[in-house]
Amino acid sequence: MSVPTQVAPQRRPARPGGVREVGLLAYPVVLQTLSETLMQVVDSAMVGRLGATELGAIGFAGIWMWTLFVPFIGTASGVQVFVARHFGADELRDCGPWVWHSLYVLVPGILLWCAAVWLWFPTLVGWIGASPGLQENAIQYAYARIPAAPASVISFAIVSFFRGIGDTRTPLFAAIVANVANVVIAYGLIFGELGLPQWGVFGAGTAMTLATWLNVGLMTLFLLRRKLRSRYRTAPVRAELRATRRFLWTGAPVGGQWVLDMIAFAIFSSIVARMGDASMAASQAMLQLLSLSFMQAVAISVAASTLVGQYIGSGDLPAAERSYRSALKLGFVLAAIIALLFVSIPELLLGIFSRDTEVLALGRPLLALGAFFQLIDAIAIITGGSLRGAGDTRWSFVVSASLAWLLRLPLLYVAAILLEGGVFGAWLAELGFVLCLCVAFVLRFRAGHWRTMQI
Question: Measured between alpha carbons, how far is residue 331 from residues 29, 307, 376, 433 in Å?
Answer without folding.
Answer: 13, 15, 10, 20
